[in-house]
Write a structure and sequence with these properties.
It is built from 9 helices and no strands. By secondary structure, the protein is mainly alpha-helical. The longest helix has 49 residues. The radius of gyration is 46 Å and the shape is elongated.
Length: 248
């Protein structure tokens, strides 16, 4: 029984004048007392239960926490949706730019200009390498090689990775180049490592020039890279063995 009904029944039962109570019979008084008792029993079952639910701190805290979590989930989902939309827009723009670049790179004027730049770069590289190794055989030549080899290896890795051929980097010649760089940078006094680098450079790597038909094509960066990766180890180890070591 709700509190409002209880108050209404109290209004109906309690507001009597003394004259009306004296004039009423005993039977009506007993009925009124029974109604009041029933009303009081309803108070115990309804009002106090409602009060306990309202004043229960744990339930209130749980409900507030669940509301906060729900709000956070809604925010997260909305932010995630916005992020996905922005990501798709950015990726679509990048793909469009890639297609435009591919179209430009496939045109004849682009390749003519690239061939010209490659020819100039290859010519300068051959001339500078020949001059430095002849003029500064024991000083600047090694510095030049220590910068030239990593540049070619980095170019080859980037090019192969863009083409999906990056597993070809596991070829033996690349390990030989890295081994020579380690020898020049960190352990140049190790005679056993010197012997290993010399045998690899004058053996398998040198033979691969003939096996892979490497050629000096100035306007093709790939051809230049192949030739230098196979010929520089052979040249530099031959120079160390027959020129640098005897002079020291």
């Amino acid at each position: 029984m709700c509190p409002s009904s209880f108050l209404n029944e109290l209004d109906d039962v309690a507001y009597y004048t003394p004259e009306e109570t004296e004039a009423s019979t005993s039977e009506t008084q007993e009925l009124e007392l029974e109604q009041m008792a029933l009303a009081m029993e309803g108070v115990d079952d309804t009002i106090f239960n409602d009060l306990t639910v309202i004043t229960n701190n744990q339930l209130v805290k749980k409900s507030l926490e669940s509301l906060k979590k729900l709000k956070e989930k809604i925010k997260d989902t909305s932010v995630a949706r916005k992020f996905d939309v922005e990501k798709e827009n950015v990726l679509s723009k990048i793909n469009k730019q890639k297609e435009k670049i591919k179209k430009v790179m496939s045109t004849a004027p682009f390749w003519r200009s690239a061939d010209k730049l490659g020819f100039v770069f290859g010519t300068i590289l051959i001339i500078s390498f020949s001059f430095i190794i002849g003029r500064y055989p024991d000083t600047l030549a090694y510095t030049f090689i220590q910068w030239l080899l990593p540049s070619f290896l980095f170019y080859r890795y980037v090019h192969y990775y863009s083409m999906g051929w990056h597993y070809y980097i596991s070829d033996f010649c690349y390990y030989e180049n890295l081994l020579i760089l380690y020898f020049l940078w960190f352990d140049s006094s190790n005679e056993q490592l010197l012997l290993i680098c010399y045998l690899f450079a004058q053996g398998v790597v040198a033979f691969s020039i003939k096996a892979f038909r490497n050629s000096l094509v100035y306007h093709k960066p790939e051809k230049l890279c192949d030739l230098f990766i196979h010929s520089i180890p052979m040249t530099i180890m031959y120079h160390i063995r027959w020129f640098t070591i005897p002079s020291q």
